[in-house]
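Task: complex structure prediction.
Instruction: return structure tokens for all chains below.
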Amino acid sequence: MVHALHEVHRVLAPGGVLIDARPDSRVAASIERGRRRRFQVFGSVRTNRVELANDRASDLAISRVVEEGLFRRRRRGRFWHRVPFASLPELRVYLREHLRFVHRARWVVDEATRRRYVNDQFVIRRAVRFELLEKTANA
Amino acid sequence: MGYHLTCDVGKHVPSVSSILRPDPLHELGEWGGEELVRRKRLLDLGCGDGRFALGVARLASSVEGLDPDEGAIAAAKKTVHRSGVTNVRFAVGAAQQLPYADAAFDVVLLSWTL
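Output:
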């Protein structure tokens, strides 16, 4: 990853900007049932261990190129993104095949409630983090 | 395939489907707005099927998309051809060896890639 960031540094013009955006694995995504304009939390789903390790490695790679003086941190933040599903079974299929999430949700509602609303619309609400880094002039 | 899970991501692992990702202009708005890419030379690393590159093409002066997934790049090229956009190009490649000259870009994007 550090090597890739060195390449990014090479192809950026002086003062150019690197945008690093990715899902924020430090925050659990929530499973919510859509109720007109409102959402009811049904559970949460975490990122799997391999992806957590990948994210930590990415963080370390960014920190390293900042320490090397290649980039300067300019701005960072987080926003929320909703992934929609037509029903709870559709959401479960998505989770089963997902590369980042663990395949089982942690429910905060009982099974009877989940069965009652099984054909309602659901969303996975996940955090996306971003950081803008500027190529330093003296690098 | 014997690759190291934490070091070779982006080199061997193709980007996942972009269908369920945020809208490009919404994402751009969250990062700081259209000025970030307006009239800029943009490189979208790990561009997948070109979701973001094509979404912001009208703002940027030029957009290059690079991804190790040949299928995704083929799909992106088809979309470019259909849409008639002229300032976007896609290529297959890895972030570890960028096929571009020094200082060729004003903005490099790693969207769900690093």
